[in-house]
Amino acid sequence: MKQRNTIFYHICALATVAAWGVSFICTRVLLDHGLTPIVIYIYRFSLAYIAMLMLSKFKIHFLRAADELKVAACGLTGGTLYFWTENTALSLTLVSNVAFIVNITPLLTTLLVILFSNNERFTRPMLAGSVVALIGVSMLVFQDGFAFGGSVTGALLAFAAALSWALYSLIFKFLQNKYSIMCLTRKVFFYGVVSSMIVALF
Q: How would you write the chain as a 3-class SS string?
């Protein structure tokens, strides 16, 4: 039974990776057809929020004020900032470049958790992997020299997206044991859409 559950979770993880990878291509197609990065995000996550609201039978939960602010911060960093920088990067450089740089998100997340949490420690394998990842990203970002323009601008925005998601993961870590994932994710979508609409106005 345990082995079956493990296989199921691996399948879910593979499906998530596949869907996430396809989203890069879909976003690029939408950008090529005239949609702006912020509008793409608003459409995507408005639909996601409505779908999750339906799954929760339209039950709205209010958290403590401090936690509500943290969830709002998650919506800003993991929603608006992440997808705006990522989608803008996709309009400036190759999809493969953006996908590669955004893949350093786990590394950045680990570094932030180590800095702000006493439960995580830096190990030698983690250090080795971090060095290899940083070298690879540096080679990609500065492949055409240090002139900050064109593909370099897109690469830097992709890095900003990775950093935004790492901040989101750090904040989310302090909330995930207090409330259900469904409740938190739905609220993150809501605050992400709201903050994106504010950004879109300007």
A: CHHHHHHHHHHHHHHHHHHHHHHHHHHHHHHHCCCCHHHHHHHHHHHHHHHHHHHCCCCCCCCCHHHHHHHHHHHHHHHHHHHHHHHHHHHHCCHHHHHHHHCCHHHHHHHHHHHHCCCCCCCHHHHHHHHHHHHHHHHHHCCCCCCCCCHHHHHHHHHHHHHHHHHHHHHHHCCCCCCCHHHHHHHHHHHHHHHHHHHHHC
